[in-house]
Design goal:
Elements lengths: L1 H32 L2 E5 L3 H4 L1 H4 L9 H29 L3 E5 L19 E2 L2 E3 L8 E3 H11 L10 E4 L12
Parallel strand pairs: 1-2, 1-6
Antiparallel strand pairs: 3-4, 4-5
Helix pairs in contact: 1-4
This protein binds zinc ion.
Zinc ion (ZN) binds next to loops.
Amino acid sequence: LARTYDQIARLRARAKRRAVDWQHQTTTELAATFGVVVVEELKIANMVRSARGTVEAPGVNVAQKAGLNRSIAGQAWGRTVTLLEYKTSERGGQVVKVPAWGTSQTCHRCGHRDPAARDGIRYACANSACGWVGHADTNAAINIKNAVGTPVSGRGDLGVTRSAKRQPPRAA
Ligand SMILES: [Zn+2]
């Protein structure tokens, strides 16, 4: 039994190292590529939504999962932003944080807000005069970038949203 606990601990440590490696690689790349990186301010409610389930299919152990998700996701995102901040400032760039309320529900092109427009990774604007369709994270990232008052010139600007695609390897 002690050996099993030991193996589990080693697996967890390896998963954590992989996640941290991923964060270092990604933030180095972002800081080297962009002068200004815009990130959304931490939003706990969004990150734990998946644990809650629906009325028809309520989540199991929701409180525990929500607590765990909140702590893991919060730590990971906070660490990512911290790395980004020191790496961009080392290169003379900066990280800008913006309140991100509604960025995933609003069309970046026409401003139409529709909670149903996002379906998984796909965003489809319901405004027939617009009809923009694309990756939901792209739409949210552009909204986040647009939320900054004054764009800064230089190496270019980037809006970053937490993305399913960009998630680090899942911790064990
Ligand atoms: Zn639109």
